[in-house]
Amino acid sequence: MSDGFDGIARGRLRRQWGIVGVVGVVGTATGYTVLGGWWTPAHGVRWTLVTAVVLTYELWLLGRHLTENRRADDERLRDTLGIATAATLMRGGALAALAGFLVVPEPTGHALWLPGGLYTVAVALDWIDGWLARRVGTESLLGAKLDTEFDGLGLLIAGLLGHSYGVLPPWYLVVGFARPAFLGGLWLHRRRGGAVGALPESGRRRQLAGLQMGVCSVALLPVVAPSTSIALSTVVMVPFVALFVHDFLAVRE
């Protein structure tokens, strides 16, 4: 009975995955039309290519983990992504659009607010999706996985963009590359025959990640001087990086 229900649920989830892909294509095409007409067609093409690559990765990530659309304490697969995961996917779309600005010149005039605005929307959706999941009781392993991956992806994109705009220092890129380095280090540890234990529970991870997001949002918005954002980001990155090092050492066995 459960297997039959899960089979139906998987089919429905795959159709929803396809809808998410169509929405991504339409959104990217709309972005190209707007940027190509407002800026130049060449800028629109460059933005579109990078945005499409990030969206493709996010769509692959969603498809790979569709079978985790369930609660940790319930084996039954849910047949709908739900409103909370939809908010998370909207965050992924905002991050993909932000990534496109890595390959075009820094906007000027009122458009200068656009990259920072996109990242601020992504940060707001990060809070909203968690609140929605708790509010309607739809927490899932899939949502948690996407949330973690999008957190790391967003910090990497924001860090690279902030560095290119001169509002974040080059050493702040350590924050964006912390998660890939953490996962890569554990992979090498396993390859060498080492064991990896469970990551200890800690509320500080979420707090420090949220602090980085807030700093990046402020840095990308034209609201403070670059000297201020550089000094602030340097201070807040220290405990964040220290926690990653601590966690890496803690899970190695």
Automatic annotation (TrEMBL):
Gene Ontology MF, one: phosphotransferase activity, for other substituted phosphate groups
Keyword DNA-binding: no
Matching Gene3D superfamilies: 1.20.120.1760
Transmembrane stretches, start-end: 17-39, 45-62, 83-104, 110-128, 148-165, 231-251
Organism whose genome encodes this protein: Halococcus hamelinensis 100A6
Full protein name: Putative phosphatidyltransferase
Similarity comment: Belongs to the CDP-alcohol phosphatidyltransferase class-I family.
GO biological process: phospholipid biosynthetic process
Record Pfam families: CDP-OH_P_transf
Organism phylogeny: Archaea, Methanobacteriati, Methanobacteriota, Stenosarchaea group, Halobacteria
